[in-house]
Write a structure and sequence with these properties.
The chain is an alpha+beta fold and 152 residues long. The chain has 3 helices and 5 strands.
């Protein structure tokens, strides 16, 4: 028995609708966790740039971040720029971190540059986003490359 083309079209619409609903539900239910993971990754990047030791759990990372890093917004030439202050236990400023972004061969490179409180020395550098080829440009994400900038 041969089925009409209408059956095929209706079947495809139903299957596509079911899978679209499944994917939309999964995406909606996972969005809060994805956003939390992105925030923890940002916090880890800033702690690394400031060379602050932190625990391995998300809670330990968040507690260390809240204790030693204070975000602030500065206006430079009419443009708001996000910056971060590193403070010690007494609240004294120990350094600053600034986000950076620039073009590379295969895409944009983004990260944070941390400097001492008098802006005279680099405390650390970390990359949060890069699309360079593994083995060459991708090596900027490796610790030996990033560590060479501390103290410069």
């Amino acid at each position: 028995m041969k089925r009409s083309y209408q059956y095929t079209v209706i079947f495809m619409i139903i299957v596509a609708s079911v899978f679209t609903a499944i994917l939309a539900t999964a995406q909606a239910s996972m969005t809060p966790r994805i956003e939390l993971n992105q925030e923890i990754a940002r916090q880890k990047s800033l702690l690394y740039a400031f060379d602050i030791e932190h625990g391995s759990s998300d809670e330990e990372v968040n507690q260390t971040y809240e204790k030693f890093i204070e975000p602030e917004t500065r206006t430079v030439d009419g443009e708001e720029i996000e910056a971060f202050k590193q403070v010690d236990e007494s609240g004294a400023i120990k350094g600053y971190a600034f986000p950076f972004s620039g073009p590379a061969l295969w895409g944009t490179i983004k990260g944070y540059l941390a400097v001492t409180e008098d802006l005279s020395e680099i405390k650390g550098l970390t990359f949060t986003e890069q699309n360079e080829t593994p083995g060459l440009g991708g090596r900027i994400d490796e610790d030996p490359f990033k560590e060479q900038w501390r103290g410069v």
